[in-house]
TrEMBL record:
Coiled coil: none annotated. This is Ig-like domain-containing protein. GO terms for biological process: cell surface receptor signaling pathway; immune response. Transmembrane segments: none annotated. Residues 1-75, 96-165, 173-238, 245-333, 426-504 form the Ig-like domain.
Length: 537
């Protein structure tokens, strides 16, 4: 209901249809009104929101009364008009750029709001203010709308705003450099232009390199600098920036790889590609370095080879066109794993009693000779579960099954350790079992033991502090980093809270060794990461 509308509440007394009643009304525990009949008609306002209950007395017998009724909840929406604005309001926004959506409430400029955001009909975010700032990705496209509640009156809310459409481009644009001529006449000049199409709001930086110097910026800041006039010979390049913080686009060289599996084993094939932005139509001859030493040359941008243990290292590339060399500005870390991997189904670390759990193991040799081990609260290490082909199965877990689990192979290989918690409580948290790679997205989901329960308002905590709430039972943690590591738990209104689970983030690009006393061997953590490096020359 909206502020100003009329409502009638009726206190129905079963079997007392012919009795004349005097009734008393409570809102959120406090007596607020009395009526000489079962009906109470009034105009609602923002302060009318709350839980209502009633109790009646017969006019003929004042000392007897009915019981208090069950409560009925009344929510009053604030009539202020609500709309969504976006900054910056560029017609095209690219993956990785930052935007701010604001839920504007007319007449509520001085009010402190808590706002709820929907995208294409689904609740995706709660904010403690009218503003929501995030980095866009391909999945960010959709129709956005918002609704706000005053922090002082949680039961009242605004109407839902009209939708605003966000069309975000999944690829990153490229700066294109063009020259009217590549030859400077004696005493003359050449005009160079830089553009990022089809988009607006860019400012450009210019760099020049000679045979004696590396690239040096020579453009003036705080100007668009789309076109410049040069009178000196050299190799020129440009890049564009816009937004706050600045989002840069250039014609850099970078390395990609296929496949992009987080783990690779000896003998598998990989392709590294030296991508030159803005040079898609050029024919390149490329040179490859590993850990600082030249190891290979190719007549194209691609290099395909089978990896081995000696393949681990830091890879860089540099390509030559007919005119000159282009500098290498980024490099990739390729790490090789010879460790084993443990998998668990369902893919979570918390379980209710009597659930069935399956673990399986795989190593680089696809060895069939492996065993699942566990170490429980009693500090006893033992085989666990029953073997069913390539899997270990336990038909029903119990709280005493809580503990650490891992795979051991006859070859001596050992997987990472996973923690399993079996709780008698009504709520569990679904979160990643194994470490997640830096930059990935993580979905946290709160699960009720009673699937038919209507309770679904969920709060999520990290290290004991509230980090978000949801009416869908789940939240997303995007672009995870080391700062997202910690103990997570959730609670469902009226049901309870889950145990805590540790979320671990693997920072890519570093070879890390973890010694496991349980397995008496070293485990190799593996991941890929493109890292920025200063330009060569």
């Amino acid at each position: 209901m909206f502020s100003g509308e009329s409502i009638t509440l009726t206190c129905e007394v079963q079997g007392g249809e012919t009795t004349e009643w005097t009734c008393e009304w409570r809102r959120s525990g406090s007596i607020i009104h009395k009526t000489d009949s079962k009906d109470w008609t009034f105009n609602v306002s923002e302060s009318s929101s709350g839980n209502y209950m009633c109790q009646c007395r017969s006019r003929d017998d004042w000392y007897s009364s009915t019981q208090w009724s069950e409560t009925i909840r009344l929510s009053v929406s604030i009539s202020n008009k609500v709309f969504v604005t976006r900054q910056p309001n560029w017609p095209l926004v690219f993956s990785g750029e930052s935007i701010t959506l604001t839920c504007e409430v007319q007449g509520g400029e001085t009010t402190e709001w808590t706002c709820e955001w929907r995208r294409s009909g689904s609740i995706i975010q709660w904010t403690d203010s009218k503003d929501w700032t995030f980095n866009v990705s391909e999945s960010s496209s959709g129709n956005y709308m918002c609704q706000c509640r005053s922090r002082d009156d949680w039961y009242s809310s605004t109407q839902w705003s009209e939708t605003i459409t966000g069309d975000f481009i999944s690829y990153k644009p490229r700066a294109k450099l063009a020259a009217g001529s590549s030859t400077i006449p004696v005493g003359g000049s050449v005009t160079l232009s830089c553009s990022v199409k089809p988009s607006a709001g860019w400012k450009y930086r210019w760099f020049r390199r000679t045979s004696d110097t590396s690239f040096v910026e020579f453009s003036r800041n705080n100007e668009e600098n789309r076109e410049i006039t040069v009178t000196q010979r050299g190799i020129y390049k440009c890049d564009g920036k816009r937004g706050n913080p600045s989002f840069y686009i250039s014609n850099k060289v970078f390395v990609t790889r296929r496949p992009i599996w987080p783990q690779m084993f000896s003998g598998e094939s990989i392709t590294l590609t030296c991508e030159v932005q803005g040079g898609e139509t050029t024919e390149w001859t490329c040179e490859w370095k590993k850990s600082g030493s030249i190891i290979h040359k190719t007549d194209s941008k691609d290099w395909t080879f089978n990896v081995s243990e000696s393949s681990s290292g830091n890879y860089m590339c540099q390509c030559r066109s007919r005119d000159d060399w282009y500098s290498s500005t980024q490099w990739i870390t390729l790490l090789l794993s010879l460790s084993a991997v443990v998998r668990i189904l369902p893919n979570r670390s918390q379980f209710f009693p009597y659930e069935s759990v399956t673990l399986s193991c795989v190593d680089s040799e696809n060895s069939p000779d492996w065993t699942v081990k566990r170490n429980t609260a009693g500090n006893e290490t033992a085989d666990w579960g029953k073997r069913n082909g390539s899997q270990h199965v336990i038909d029903a877990v119990y709280p005493f099954d809580s503990g650490r689990y891992w795979c051991e192979f006859r070859t001596g290989a050992c997987s990472e350790v996973i923690n399993v918690t079996v709780t008698d409580g009504p709520v569990i948290l679904q979160s990643p079992v194994l470490p997640v790679a830096e930059g990935d997205a993580v979905i946290l989901r709160c699960i009720h033991s009673d699937a038919s329960s209507s309770s679904n308002f969920t709060k999520f905590y990290k290290n004991g502090l509230l980090i978000g709430s949801s009416s869908t039972g789940s939240i997303a943690v995007r672009d995870v980093s080391e700062s997202d590591e910690g103990l997570y738990k959730c609670s469902i209104t009226g049901a309870g809270e889950s145990p805590e689970s540790w979320l671990s983030v693997r920072v890519c690009g570093w070879r890390s060794f973890t010694y496991s006393k349980l397995c008496e061997m070293f485990l190799i953590s593996v991941c890929f990461k493109i890292r920025t490096k200063q330009e060569m020359f």
